[in-house]
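Follow-up to my earlier ticket, as requested here are the two runs.
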Amino acid sequence: MKVELVTNLKRQATRILADLHQSKEAVLITEHGQPSAYLIDVQDYEFMQRRLALLEGLSRGERAILEGRTSSHEQARERMEKWLK
């Protein structure tokens, strides 16, 4: 992972963005020697957001199973038939 100072980002944003688009490698931005932010490619960010949404859906499903909020196959089929009408 590349690391850049926030002052370098201010001065050389065009170069840093060009490198980011070419390498697809995230850039850690530091401020006063401390991590401050990550700079990532738009496609990578959107991919991570889709992956997170999927994981959240799986988590809700697992929670529903643990809490006993499930339906039998027959109950689910009946609900779907009503919903599709």
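Run two:
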Amino acid sequence: MRTDDPEILQLCTDLAQALKTQGVMMATAESCTGGLIAACCTGLSGSSDWFERGFVTYSNAAKTEQLGVPAALIEAHGAVSEPVARAMALGAVAHSRAQVSVAVTGVAGPTGGSADKPVGLVWFGWAVGEQAWTECRRFDGDRDAVRAATVRHGLQGLLQRLATA
């Protein structure tokens, strides 16, 4: 996936403006994207004004250690689940100096999918303060396409929630 995709650059620019206008910082909590959302955001000059930090929590242990996601929650629902996405988003805010976050956990493929959690399934979490939202999406394509779609949707989702906060 290219971090200089025009659509993603525009989303980052719009998000930067919204965050600066509201005077808040953002954090990311990423699993299946491996830091791509953070990379796209910090690709903009001046991003230190609105981007606080990114957590790449690819393993279950990292989700627990860095974000405070209870191991029992992961064990009960799996890493790719609504409760874990919510906990990741809230954990990113709680374990940073940011006020808002986006979190993603999914199956980018081409391996790792199952009947219940097929390749392309991604759970999103967004937090603004102590309020959190989640959403599940299924994206088509290869690993790069799934990850690029995840970055786009994650950024769009945070921008939408900031607009209504």
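The only thing I checked on run two: Strands lie at 26-30, 51-56, 100-106, 121-128, 131-138. Let me know what else you need.
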